[in-house]
């Protein structure tokens, strides 16, 4: 009799471990301490909670809880509006899914973070005159930016705007995103920014880039992509110019939970529907 | 002195020799030569002007304007560390990461100074650090950090963002007009005439503003400032209105509601786009095969017809319908509106 119980419990713990291992491989916790990845990680946590918190094994629930707490604790360090809105979204998910005790703990943590944030923004009252950066340095700096940061930069000031119109910037972005999909006929006076814009719209890049996630076939794992490439050096060497397969957030959640939930609608109406999302039933 | 003496003396002199550097504020300092020579600009100065340059206070090498004394000492610290050949890559990396931790103002100054001294590795280091600061921030946040003035007009800000949004209607129109423009160009080439590009640009905007449901007069002139302002305003309004998919749907609803043909319109567009995505990977913007072209032509006519009828219904007889000359020879006619 005893052995039979043991046999029954074994597969369960194995399943638990499988999920937990998958979650650890996703490296959400590491991403939270990264300035650039923080909003992506928070959004992913929100999605995981929304789409299946109640079905998670106990161990994994504990991990998720821990990561939510650290997300709130790290919020003051991030200090960008993107981080704040990501954290807000996470709080909403927490409020609707977590059991009472954990929910209260998380919310307390969140409120403390908001207070700390306010204190930080108030101490920025110095009026210093920064030396203006010369154009070619600006262009050099922009060459390290992703497309969204580059677009943000173009709206900052006149001189920055001018620097962002530099063709070489858009050419390398184009190469990075689309060179493996599109062949282009170049002529003198070719507008690389226009070309990029057109392909971007065509390939629905804004949707695909929203998650920050990609699948690397060389290491067979779901990773936080570093400019569309796998962060691991060996994979980058092997893949050459080819970027990762980008993933949508719900695909990542499906991978974690082993589900096959939909769908495109949930992604485009993201924020509005999130709170109302009904948990998909697992078979 | 004999050659042997020279040979002995020279290296000693080199090891102990100093270079005098002068910054724009007038202060002059003495720096070990091998450290200073790590900077290409200084190196070139010395080589160009002969070994006399920088050898004494009187003929100090004057440094570019962007190098103030504080930055100079920072840069020299950097050079002092890196010019030692025996260090491993890891050591250098660790040093660099510590070195680069400073406030944004100093980072900017450092990047400037390093650039004027042509010290590329330091330029890269400071540029990357600045890029990391800029990454993921909104324009307002960036302005705060760098204390930059907000001196762009609204439409200039929206320029690159316009159409970087996923509205299928705009996409469709842009593609159609791009196709038209190309056809036009080819025909004109055959005829040897010049193409008036502005015509096409304007008609896109006009169409967009019609979709927007805006009432406005479109007169067929080409060069008036008023026109340009209006165009920009409408572009503005268009992009504001079309900022999200949901809103885009509403706009189409507005214009085609009387028809009840919204669903038809959408499904027609979906057909086109599924066709497009099915095509092969080497897909280029206007390299469409003739079958697709015909389909598109038919679709354009359809679309135009719908627009016309909706406008006739919704605004009485105030406007003339849109003219799309598809197989015609000449410029695509612009929309003309005549108030009665």
TrEMBL record, chain A:
Pfam families (alphabetical): At5g52880_ARM, F-box-like
TM annotation in the entry: none
Upper classification of the organism: Eukaryota, Viridiplantae, Streptophyta, Embryophyta, Tracheophyta
SUPFAM superfamilies tied to this protein: F-box domain
InterPro entries: At5g52880_ARM (IPR057039), F-box-like_dom_sf (IPR036047), F-box_dom (IPR001810)
Domain of life of the native organism: Eukaryota
Name assigned to this protein: F-box domain-containing protein
PROSITE patterns for the chain: FBOX
Protein species of origin: Brassica carinata (Ethiopian mustard)
From TrEMBL, chain B:
Subunit structure: Part of a SCF (SKP1-cullin-F-box) protein ligase complex.
PANTHER family assigned: SKP1
Pathway recorded for this protein: Protein modification; protein ubiquitination
Protein's recorded name: SKP1 component dimerisation domain-containing protein
Protein species of origin: Brassica oleracea var. oleracea
Keyword Nucleus set for record: yes
A single BP term in Gene Ontology: jasmonic acid mediated signaling pathway
Keywords (A to Z) from UniProt: Nucleus, Ubl conjugation pathway
């Amino acid at each position: 009799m005893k052995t039979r119980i043991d046999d029954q419990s074994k597969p369960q713990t194995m399943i638990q471990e499988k999920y937990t291992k998958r979650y650890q491989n996703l490296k959400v916790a590491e991403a939270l301490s990264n300035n650039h990845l923080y909003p992506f990680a928070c959004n992913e946590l929100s999605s995981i909670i929304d789409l299946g918190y109640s079905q998670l094994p106990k161990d994994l629930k504990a991990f998720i809880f821990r990561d939510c707490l650290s997300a709130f604790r790290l919020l003051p360090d991030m200090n960008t509006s993107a981080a704040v809105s990501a954290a807000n979204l996470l709080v909403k998910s927490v409020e609707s899914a977590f059991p009472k005790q954990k929910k209260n703990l998380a919310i307390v943590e969140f409120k403390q973070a908001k207070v700390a944030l306010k204190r930080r923004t108030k101490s920025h009252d110095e009026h210093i005159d920064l030396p203006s950066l010369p154009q070619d340095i600006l262009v050099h700096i922009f060459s390290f930016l992703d497309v969204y940061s580059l677009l943000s930069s173009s709206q900052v000031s006149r001189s920055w705007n001018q620097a962002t119109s530099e063709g070489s910037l858009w050419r390398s972005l184009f190469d990075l995103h689309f060179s493996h999909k599109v062949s282009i006929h170049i002529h003198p006076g070719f507008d690389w920014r226009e070309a990029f814009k057109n392909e971007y719209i065509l390939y629905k890049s804004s949707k695909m880039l929203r998650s920050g996630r990609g699948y690397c076939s060389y290491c067979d794992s779901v990773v936080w992509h570093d400019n569309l490439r796998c962060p691991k050096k060996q994979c980058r060497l092997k893949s050459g110019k080819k970027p990762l397969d980008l993933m949508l957030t719900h695909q990542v959640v499906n991978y974690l939970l082993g589900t096959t939930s939909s769908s495109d609608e949930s992604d485009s109406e993201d924020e509005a529907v999130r709170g109302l999302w009904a948990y998909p039933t697992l078979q | 002195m004999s050659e042997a003496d020279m040979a002995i003396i020279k290296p000693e002199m080199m090891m102990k020799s100093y270079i005098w550097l002068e910054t724009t504020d007038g202060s002059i300092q003495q720096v070990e030569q091998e450290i200073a020579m790590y900077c290409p600009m200084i190196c070139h100065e010395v080589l160009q002007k002969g070994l006399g340059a920088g050898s004494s206070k009187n003929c100090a090498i004057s440094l570019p304007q962007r190098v103030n004394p504080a930055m100079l000492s920072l840069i020299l610290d950097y050079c002092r560390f890196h010019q030692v050949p025996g260090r491993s890559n890891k050591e250098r990396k660790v040093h660099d990461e510590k070195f680069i931790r400073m406030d944004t103002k100093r980072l900017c100054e450092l990047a400037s100074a390093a650039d004027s001294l042509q010290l590329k590795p330091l330029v890269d280091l400071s540029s990357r650090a600045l890029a990391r600061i800029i990454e993921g921030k909104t324009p307002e946040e960036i302005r705060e950090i760098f204390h930059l003035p907000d001196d762009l007009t609204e439409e200039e800000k929206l320029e690159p963002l316009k159409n970087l949004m996923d509205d299928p209607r705009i996409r469709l129109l842009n593609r159609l007009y791009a196709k038209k423009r190309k056809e036009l160009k080819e025909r004109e080439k055959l005829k040897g005439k010049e193409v008036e590009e502005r015509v096409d640009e304007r008609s896109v905007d006009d169409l967009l503003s019609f979709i927007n449901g805006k009432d406005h007069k479109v007169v067929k002139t080409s060069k008036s400032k008023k026109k340009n302002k209006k165009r920009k305003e409408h572009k503005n309004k268009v992009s504001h209105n079309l900022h999200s998919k949901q809103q885009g749907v509403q706009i189409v609803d507005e214009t085609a509601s009387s028809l009840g043909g919204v669903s038809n319109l959408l499904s027609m567009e979906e057909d086109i786009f599924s066709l497009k995505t099915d095509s092969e990977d080497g897909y280029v913007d206007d390299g469409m095969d003739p079958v697709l072209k015909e389909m598109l032509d038919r679709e354009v006519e359809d679309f135009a017809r719908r627009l016309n009828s909706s406008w006739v219904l919704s605004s009485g007889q105030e406007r003339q319908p849109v003219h799309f000359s598809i197989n015609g020879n000449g410029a695509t006619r612009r929309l003309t509106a005549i108030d009665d």
